[in-house]
């Protein structure tokens, strides 16, 4: 995000803020805000995520502020929509231990897992089909 003020003494000291929807974004455990240029006329700011998570999805804007002699001017960038795609779950089926002899019981367990970076509520539905025949 690049915010420029004026070259005269009337519009100086620009700053940039990142927003996710209506919430300001602050540096955190897996997000970073960096300003590469910060002087009386220009501010360049970057927002980055070291580990992208599903909760990072949403609409982001950069808001620039410029101080005037008697006021402050704020303008927002066009929004950018960040979509974090979910992977397919890893599905495993296991068989209960013990001998599988005719007439004994059998338990099958199905487990569906998602990577740890999926940090929003996700409903996984498991459907079973069986073909039981004596052929």
UniProtKB/TrEMBL annotation:
Name of the protein in its database record: Ig-like domain-containing protein
Ig-like domain span: 1-63, 89-135
Phylogenetic lineage: Eukaryota, Metazoa, Porifera, Demospongiae, Heteroscleromorpha
Superkingdom per UniProt: Eukaryota
Classification via InterPro entries: Ig-like_dom, Ig-like_dom_sf
Stretch forming the signal peptide: none
